[in-house]
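[Solved] Which block belongs to which protein?

Original post:
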Amino acid sequence: MAKRRRSSEEWHQLIQQQEGSGQSVSAFCVSQGLCSTAFYAWRRRFRKDGVDRTSFVRLEASGHGASVGTRMTLTTPDGYRLEFNGWIAPQRIAEVVSLLDRRARGC
């Protein structure tokens, strides 16, 4: 079985789920089919980077028929400011944010 690559947002959500589950990391990882070594590494990365866990926000589209004049500004925790004119697919925003995240980590 091929290993599934998870995004940093997915790892963040998993870490939050574990913290709220009342389960140990080991038990949570077994129940979710996760490698505990990877779990600890991601948790350590978030803590090392000083990531405020409240800074992660799920983006969802509301109203696919937004007018052309619609303007949206998104500022990331790293200080990047993204401005969009008109409607843009949430998947595209996620791709851009992911690229900026990798750039900030030097990947």
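(Second protein starts here: sequence line, then its structure tokens.)
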Amino acid sequence: MSKFTSSVLTAGILTAMLLSSFGVAWGAENGAAPASPTAAAAGPSTSELEARIEDQQRQIEDLKLLVTRLEERLGNSPVTTASAAMPPSAPAPAPPAPAPAPTPAPAPPPVLAAAYRAPRELLPDIGHIGAQIGMLAGGATNPYKDNKGMSLGGYIDLPWKNFRGSKLSYEIMVGLQKATTTQTTTSGVNVLVNAVLNSYLGNTAANKTDATSYLAGPLPITSTTQEHSKVLTVAPVLLKYSITSLGRFRPYIVGGFSTYVWIGSNDNSASFNAVSALGSLASVPVGSSTLGATLNAILQGGQIGGLVPTAPELAARGVPHGQGNMLFGGQLGGGFEVRVAPKLSMGVDIRRNFVEGTNAGFTTFSFKQGLHW
């Protein structure tokens, strides 16, 4: 309710009360007839009328005080009415203030990409974890009764479990060794070539030539050859137990599963010569060449299986030749390391290799150098 409306209401109430009071007093003074004869006979006296007027005046003052308090309360907390009648002469009410714009809904939080997490690294700061990588260099006996030879290799050790004063590691080792041995081979291909030559030369069984001479000459069927052998060792599953409680000196044992590849070839170039074996027959024409030169081209050189060399065309292209096999087995050995620096060690390694087959086992003796991290 506005202040104007409150003032009008207050004025109306006071006016009504004053009119009521003055009407009563005016009627008494002008001798208005009472409602009944009894009331007229006993009309109020002047003192009673003055008392009533004073009483009504006090009520008016009380009403004024209540109206004042009401206006104060309405001024502090205005109350809107459902429908207030405004007099025609009252000024038009001020237009209502525009409603505040609705508060926009808060934007949804942005979807953040998952925080990047660096993958776990084995060596984030290249610290010491007890692993090492190293080289092996030394000598070895060789399978199949070949001579001793040189051996080279490498290994990597990864720590697996620590014990009190010792350590168990997982090791992967790869090695290669070579040897050259003088061997004797008998070629069945040369036997067949001698039979063809003797038939061509007329030296047949009808001439009562014995079978040994018929097949064993004029070309030699047995030759002294140089056998070149290579052994590749791959040991993917080895366990190494090291004693670490002795300070710089650390003995160990190692063993596990291994695979082996042996490749070899026999070269008879130093012992086989068809020209000298045939004598005067070596110059017999054969195509654009001679008999001796043709036989040397196909029977002299690095033999496969001790029988016959590779084809001349393959040899001219440098194609490797020989024979070999893949074998399975295991190795068992040991040695020691001496820490000459925090990240460097020197030592000795000895391993016995047990390979399937006859005369296939061998032993390696190596000096080792390890780098630790």
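Accepted answer:
You had them paired correctly. Confirming on the second one: The longest helix spans residues 46-76.
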